[in-house]
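Colleagues,

For the teaching module next term, I've prepared a clean inverse folding example: a structure given as tokens, and then the sequence designed for it. I'd like students to try predicting residues themselves before seeing the answer, so please don't circulate the second half yet.
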């Protein structure tokens, strides 16, 4: 009876090893077989958007956004305050023209929880 169990476990282990080896080969072959009928790839988008650096000093937040690209980027500074009673703030939208840098500022009454800048690129 022991030899039958050993044989069964050996066959199961061998089957698992073979399945582990053949599965990536089958997936790769299936990908190559379907690649001839796929749609053409979309072109890479033009780079756009400002590069923004944020800094927090105490309860004050500052963000500098520079736009090195030929399209205008509209940025907004979002400040989330750490205290539940402190009002979170979103700045008004500021257009960053190509080759320009803008400074955005905000503050909380106490500690700053998180800060981020949102972008929307226009032509």
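(Answer key — instructors only)
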């Amino acid at each position: 009876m022991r030899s039958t169990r050993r044989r069964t476990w050996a066959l199961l282990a061998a089957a698992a090893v073979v399945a582990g080896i053949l599965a990536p080969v089958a997936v790769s072959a299936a990908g190559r077989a379907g690649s001839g009928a796929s749609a053409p790839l979309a072109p890479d988008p033009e780079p756009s958007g400002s590069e923004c650096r944020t800094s927090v000093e105490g309860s004050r937040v500052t963000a500098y956004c520079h736009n090195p690209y030929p399209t205008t980027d509209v940025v907004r500074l979002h400040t989330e305050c750490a205290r539940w009673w402190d009002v979170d703030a979103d700045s008004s939208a500021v257009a960053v023209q190509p080759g320009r840098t803008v400074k955005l500022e905000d503050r909380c009454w106490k500690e700053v929880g998180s800060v981020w800048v949102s972008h929307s690129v226009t032509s």
